[in-house]
Amino acid sequence: VVITYRFAAMSTPSQIARSTTDASRAVVIGAGMAGLLAARVLSDFFAEVVLVERDRLPDRPQFRPGVPQAAHGHVLLVGGVRTINDLFPGIERQLNDAGATSGDVCNDAIVVVRGRQLPRFPSNLRGMLLSRNLLEWQVRQRLGEHANVTIRPECRVTGLIHDAAVSRVTGIRVAAPGEAVTEIVADVVVDASGARSVTSAWLAESGIATVPETVVDARVGYASRRFRRPANWSEDWKVAAISWQPPTNRCAGGVYPEENGIWVASLVGALEDIPKTTEDHFLAHARQLEDPVLYDLIRDSEPVSKIAGYRLLGNRRRRYSGLSKRLGRLIVIGDALCTINAFYGQGMTIAALEARALQAQFSGVALDDAPAVDRAVRRAQRACETVLTIPWLFSTTEDFRHGTGVEGVRTLTHRVASWYVDRALQVRSERITLAIFRTMGMVDPYALFRPRVLIEVLLMSALRQIGSVLGRHGPQESATMDNR
Ligand SMILES: Cc1cc2nc3c(=O)[nH]c(=O)nc-3n(C[C@H](O)[C@H](O)[C@H](O)COP(=O)(O)OP(=O)(O)OC[C@H]3O[C@@H](n4cnc5c(N)ncnc54)[C@H](O)[C@@H]3O)c2cc1C
Known about the structure:
Low-confidence stretches: 1-12, 476-484
Distance between the termini: 65 Å
Radius of gyration: 23 Å
Number of strands: 24
Bound molecules: flavin-adenine dinucleotide
């Protein structure tokens, strides 16, 4: 056994072998949303799933250091709600009972893009508003009901183990406080250790492969604060997200309900307009948003937390599936595979859809058929990377709008996508608005590119153009669509 690990000078570790030679085991690194959902799916196929987490895991919804983003507003988009409900039937009701809010993403949300509010109307698209801590805790409780899943908290993965031929991963090395370093043998290892995953560095250091990475970085930062909802608050919306209008206005923000009458206001900025964590600056940033709704809400609300800051790592996408030399039986998912701009709220939904992709690839595979398992792993990695196609395109296209200070290569696809999204946002019909939400919510990521939608967007754009050439205003917007 050849051992790859980051820190040398380790003693020979003891092994946690399988209980019988033919029992199958999957190991998942990281108990964030991606790891929890992957473990749930793999528990249907493997005799045993071991989920290894560096943090101590709280026995109630509570902040933990491994998920610092929980200090900031989190929404669960439609595709995420549906998938998580399928994987854990009834979980939405449990979350609602614990104080989470379900809402119609078209009707209950104020979404301001390019300085204008998207039309509001009833739809069948339901998202969830809740603290990240509650969601993760509830999912962890439900996962714990699966008898073949073992969650090992306070257990840090220090390296991967592979076979002598360096052809496949055979397990992981873990260090737990006060214990000797141990190896956990596995048939398949899933890395869900988040944006700071070291798998690609491990592969490079051990000379196995250089994982290609694409970066588009608008140097986005967050500042978030929790407020008590005023007792007399009575509006017809549940959540507000106000996007930026770059390059003239790089300030964005959202206000999201959590449990127990708490709002979290997350302010976001790019390049030199990152929100600071001082009280004055926080309010000043809120005042600069394209719509006053967030500022108006927090101005008179009672703050119940400090202001927490966060710098995103940029849009960062790694491609494991196309490597000429691969380490078999290893799958990388979640933020470890790709991070996109968090303001678009898609990370947990992507994690859910990647779990679905794993499910599809392992379905029907006999785990004692080694070549079939190898194939399933390869396909699963590819399928997870495919899930990212549209969210990546959307997030990077939007981030390039911040101008020349954005790190990364703007391709023709970005230019076309930017042109098309601008046109789609001008249409303001129910069909196009629904398509935008279906794409963003990942119910149907290609909804905006379906023929009827394409035709309507292009036709309306042409009419607007003709109207302006003739010196008139473009096609009239439907007054009934703009509810505010
Ligand atoms: C500011 C911000 C706001 C966001 N808002 C939204 C939103 O509104 N909606 C949305 O869907 N997404 C949002 N996201 C993204 C979302 O949080 C993640 O994409 C999603 O949680 C998937 O993360 P993950 O499970 O891959 O990684 P993480 O949540 O980072 O979890 C990784 C886990 O791995 C553990 N770990 C790391 N290294 C090791 C190791 N060596 N050994 C053992 N364990 C290890 C960590 O402790 C952690 O528990 C936001 C992100 C940020 C930063």
